[in-house]
Design a protein that fits this description.
Elements lengths: L1 E4 L5 H15 L1 H4 L3 H8 L4 H9 L5 E6 L2 E7 H8 L27
Antiparallel strand pairs: 1-2, 2-3
Helix pairs in contact: 1-4
Length: about 110
C-alpha cells in the first residue's frame, strides 16, 4: 500500500470512498436515517473533493493499493467545516452532526 497526495483526477474515486465511509461507518452519527444521511452526503461531491485536492495548502492524502483508493484523509475539510466555509444544505441546521474533537482514522476495505 502507498500513502501519497491525492491527484485531481482521483476526485471522483476519492469522493466515493468518503461517501461509502460515511454511509457504512458513521451510523452512530447519522442513525441510518435517510434524511440525515442525505443531507450529510449532499456536500460530499466529486467537485468539492476536487476543490480540496487542488486548493493550495491543503493536505489530501490517499491510501492506494493496486490502483484502488482504499482511504482518504482531508484535514482541511475539517477546518473548513468548523469555519462554516461550506454552503448550507437545506435542512442541515436540523440534522447538524458535529465533528469529533479527536482525530479518527477511517478506512474502507
Amino acid at each position: 500500500m502507498e500513502i501519497r497526495d491525492a491527484l485531481p483526477e482521483e476526485a471522483a474515486s476519492a469522493c466515493e470512498v468518503i461517501r461509502r465511509s460515511i454511509s457504512d461507518l458513521c451510523g452512530a452519527d447519522h442513525l441510518n436515517d435517510p434524511l440525515i444521511l442525505g443531507r450529510w452526503l449532499a456536500n460530499e461531491t466529486p467537485a468539492i473533493v476536487a476543490f480540496w485536492i487542488s486548493r493550495p495548502g491543503n493536505s489530501v492524502l490517499v491510501a492506494v493499493e493496486n490502483g484502488t483508493i482504499l482511504a482518504v484523509g482531508i484535514e482541511q475539510a475539517k477546518a473548513d467545516w468548523k469555519a462554516g466555509r461550506f454552503d448550507t444544505v437545506p435542512g442541515d441546521a436540523e440534522a447538524f452532526i458535529p465533528l469529533h474533537d479527536e482525530d479518527m482514522v477511517v478506512s474502507y476495505p
